Every structure is written in structure tokens, then in C-alpha cells.
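Good morning N.,

You mentioned wanting to compare the apo and holo forms, so I went ahead and generated the holo version with FE3-S4 cluster. This is what I fed in:
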Amino acid sequence: TFVVTDNCIKCKYTDCVEVCPVDCFYEGPNFLVIDPDECIDCALCEPECPAQAIFSEDEVPADQQQFIELNVELSEKWRDNNITEMKDKADDAEEWDGVPDKLQYLEK
Ligand code: SF4
Ligand code: F3S
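and this is what came out, ligand included:
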């Protein structure tokens, strides 16, 4: 499966959702997640993310391992917010792109 990680938080560019053949992205207030049970590992979304926030599960950086479980948990919590079409990124997305350790800002 593929996993959305830290740098998506407060950027949420949403380019990723346009290419997913199985529509398995779910949206929260300032972050998206992938439902690992639905992801078919096609890898199409990974290069689409301007923030380079999407990784194959086995390539998630060591300091971001908690995002594997967060994608599981939040794809259930945000089940009613399936997102399949690109929308406007966060107003200050560029300012937040690359800021480390944004997990503290994650809104659930
Ligand atoms: Fe969707 Fe493919 Fe990305 Fe999985 S790897 S979330 S199926 S685009
Ligand atoms: Fe997030 Fe990148 Fe998609 S910033 S919304 S994972 S395009």
C-alpha cells in the first residue's frame, strides 16, 4: 500500500486524488489519507504529489512510521469524506511545504 505522510499536513495539494484508479483517498481538515485496504499499489499517486508526501509503505522514512497506522485509523474516521477531484490547496501551502514535524498541527 501507499501512505500519506507528514509533509501533506497543512499543504493538502490534492493532485494525488485525480489519478487514483480506485478512489481510495479520504479527506480531513488539513490532511489526506489512503485507505490501505483499498489501495492497489499502482504507484500513480506518488509522483503527483508536489510535496512528495506519498511513499510506498516499505519506503516510509524511519521517523514517519506512525503515519502507516494513521492512514489506517483516519481512513476509517473520515470514511464519509472520500475525495476524488482536485480542489484548491491550502492558502498558505507553499509556506508550509517542507516544514518538518507537522504532525502537531494535524486536525482530526
Ligand atoms: Fe490510489 Fe494507486 Fe496511490 Fe494506491 S498507489 S492510493 S491505488 S493512486
Ligand atoms: Fe497531500 Fe500531496 Fe495529495 S500534499 S493532498 S498527498 S498531492
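DSSP finds three helices and four strands in the chain.

Happy to go through it together on a call whenever suits you.

Best,
F.
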